[in-house]
Amino acid sequence: MNVSTSVWDMMTRVVASLLTVAALFWVAVLYFPLMRQNEVMRQQIVELDREIQEEETANRQLRLEIDSLKTDPKSVERLAREQLGLARPDETVVRFETLGE
To answer: What predicted TM-score, i.e. pTM, was given to this entire model?
Structure first.
């Protein structure tokens, strides 16, 4: 009777070990896709943070330009000359064109 008890004890331990391994495998199968998804989302977060930094830089630049146009008359004059081709009444505007345009 002692031999059969030890065989059953050994089989019980083997089955318990196999069940533990199966449970760990099941958890791994369920968890690894989530890990991959998490990594993809982290990469997206890094990319979006980079885009946010770029947009904040552009926003700061535009705010500086707006403030300059609100407070500095020379900025308004420069902008009118560069983009609209305007000049004062006593000035002559000369435009240069490149070949191919």
So the answer is: 0.55
